[in-house]
Amino acid sequence: MHIEGSVALVTGANRGIGRALAQELLGRGALKVYAAARRPEQIDLPGVVPLRLDITNPEQVADTARVASDVTLLVNNAGVTKYSKLVTGNLADIRQEMDTNYYGTLSIVRAFAPVLAANGGGAILNVLSVMAWLGYEHSNGYGASKAALWALTNGIRVELAPQRTHVTGLVLASTDTDMMAGFDVPKNRLEDVARTALDGVEAGRLEVLADADSIALKAALSRDPAETYPQVVGAA
Fold first, then answer.
1. SS3 letters for 82-136?
2. CA-wise closest residue to 188 among 210, 171, 218, 220
3. Looking at the whole model, is its pTM more than 0.90?
4. Rounded Cα–Cα distance for residues 68 and 34 (Å)
5. Contact 48, 7 (CB under 8 A)
6. Helices first, then strands: H and E counts in the chain
7. How far is 93 from 88, CA to CA, in rounded Å?
8. Which of 110, 175, 229, 233 could form a disulfide bond with 188, CB atoms 3.0-4.6 angstroms apart?
9. How far is CA 102 from the centre of its chain?
10. What whole-number percentage of the chain has pLDDT above 70?
11. What share of the chain is helix, strand, coil (3-state, %, to 5)?
């Protein structure tokens, strides 16, 4: 996938990782960058084409696919967290996380798969999270939705290969976004994540681990869960 000369659509492009990715795409010579957001009036990046898009709204998804029919690179970044616990959290919040992060992304993929096929195949970049791989004392509704999105990414990679659409998953840990503003932990810089992600897309990588934490947690998936969750051993 060559970024230069491509036509990209970035969801959730009004801030954070989405904005940084749109900016990096422009810097790499993308011919056109559609910047989609629920509130496009918040998009302040010169050179992009703002679009109104709530990925949970089927009509808006369909309209966006019609308007952006020249897209060759789809970047699925839009998402939400309600910091929900699975056992005691608000079930409506957990459903919103799944509806947005999983079903909303799936809706975009289904709408744009024919567009990408018609334009030669192109590529998809899905923004994932290490939360898919680790349980916490909080935010497990978000983690479950990102685990579903990881599985979705692996699945569509196989399903879309015959139409020559390349699918890359971007996995990242704590990053300097509004979502992480309340956490006093080391955070990735947005521009570093965007650069690493698009390097991976251009290199044809299937998965990009954006930071040391993502690399370590991916490696830990093969460990005995007792090593990952020592605090629960002996609790039963």
1. CCCCCCCCCHHHHHHHHHHHHHHHHHHHHHHHHHHHHCCCCEEEEECCHHHHCCC
2. 210
3. yes
4. 8
5. no
6. 8, 7
7. 11
8. 175
9. 10
10. 93
11. 50, 15, 35
